[in-house]
Amino acid sequence: MGGNSAEREISLQSGNAVLEALTNVGVAAIGVDGKDLDCNDLRNYDRVFIALHGRGGEDGSIQGALEHLGIPYTGSAVLASALAMDKIRCKQLWTGIGLPTPSFYTPSNEAQLVNVVDEAEFPFIVKPCREGSSIGMEKVQSGLPELVNAFRNAKQYDEVLIEQYIDGPEYTVTIVGQEILPPIRLETPRTFYDYKAKYFSNDTQYHCPCGLQGDKLAELEQLAKWAFDSLGCQGWGRVDLMMGANQEFYVLEVNTVPGMTSHSLVPMSAKQAGIDFSELVIRILKETLV
C-alpha cells in the first residue's frame, strides 16, 4: 500500500482497510508501504495483497517484481495490469476487437489540438494516459483555449488522451473471480465523477441495484466482462462504463486494483450481494490460490 504515485493517500486508506479486515479474521498480515520499497524485503512473505493504486502498483511494475520473486499476489498479471493502466493502448485494443468505447484522440503537442477541434464536437474529457482516480482529468465544454489549458494540465503527468464526452449515466461493474457483482449507477452534482466526488464528497449518489433490468442489465454485465477478459485481467477488478443518449454502452476503463476505502465502489457492490468487507477481502486473497 502507499507507494510513490499520485494516488498514495487513497492507497494508504485502502491498504489499512484491507489489513484490518485480514487481521480481524485471523490472517497473519503485515502492512508494507511501497514507498521506496526494496522488493527483496518481501521474500519471506507467502503472498501479497496489492493495494497500491496508480503507477508502480497497477501498471505491472510490482507484479513483475513479485513474479521474479515467485510470490503469489492478488489481481492481474504483468501484461494485463500494464494494458489496463495505459488508457491509450487499452482503447486501441478495444477499438481493434470492436468493443464500444468513446472515440478518442492522442495529440502529442498543442498544435495538433486544432485537428481535434476540426474533426470532432465538444465536449471532451481530457486525461493523462496512465493516471487513476481522475487525477489530471478535465471536462472541456468548448473552445480551443479551454482545450489547450486542459491539455497542458494533463501533460504534466503523462501522454494525453482526449476522449469524446458521453452525456449519460455512468455505471461500474465489479468482478471477483468469475463472479459479476451487482452493478452501481453513479450520480454526482459535479461536472463529472472526479477525484473529490470519488473520495471526499458526501453528495455523490450510488444506486445499487443500478436500475437496469432484463436484457439491458445482462448487456452491461457482458460488456464489462468482455472488456475485463480482453485485457487478460484476472482475480478481481472494476470496469467503468457510460450509457449514451442512444441507450448504448461505452467502456471507459478497467481498474485492476480498485479502491477499498469507505467511499469505494467495490465494497458497496459486494455488500449488495450479501458479502461483507472481510469476506470480500478473503475472496480476493483466495484468488491467489487458484
What does this structure look like?
This protein has helices at 8-24, 61-69, 78-85, 87-97, 113-119, 144-155, 195-199, 214-230, 265-272, 277-286; strands at 104-105, 124-128, 138-140, 160-164, 170-176, 179-180, 184-187, 205-207, 236-243, 249-255. The protein has 290 residues and is α+β, with helices and mostly antiparallel strands. The chain has 3 domains: 8-75, Rossmann fold, CATH 3.40.50.20; 83-99 and 167-289, 2-Layer Sandwich (D-amino Acid Aminotransferase, Chain A, domain 1); 104-164, 2-Layer Sandwich (Dna Ligase, domain 1). The strands form 2 sheets. Strands 5, 6, 7, 8, 9 and 10 form a 6-stranded antiparallel sheet that branches. Helix 1 (8-24) crosses helix 10. The longest helix is centred in the N-terminal third of the chain and has 17 residues, at 8-24. The radius of gyration is 19 Å and the shape is globular. The model has no long low-confidence stretch (mean pLDDT 92).
Explain the layout of strands and helices:
Blueprint lengths: L7 H17 L36 H9 L8 H8 L1 H11 L6 E2 L7 H7 L4 E5 L9 E3 L3 H12 L4 E5 L5 E7 L2 E2 L3 E4 L7 H5 L5 E3 L6 H17 L5 E8 L5 E7 L9 H8 L4 H10 L4
Antiparallel strand pairs: 1-4, 2-3, 2-4, 5-6, 5-7, 5-9, 7-8, 9-10
Helix pairs in contact: 1-10
